[in-house]
Design a protein that fits this description.
Layout: E1 9-14, H1 32-38, E2 41-49, E3 52-59
Length: 65
Amino acid sequence: MLDASLIDRFALLTSPVAIGKGGLPASSSEPLADRLEAAGLVEVDHQQLGDDLLTIFERRSTISQ
């Protein structure tokens, strides 16, 4: 969906807590934030939620000027 430009807005929640030995990474190659930016999404907002961080990305063409 990301490669097909079907995502206009993405909320990424990151945490300092590891998922664990059996957990799967969100992205197998590079950090997910880097993949979002490479696909044309830019960070438009972020908010600290306790120890976690919520980052909002939007497609450049949908950001109001």
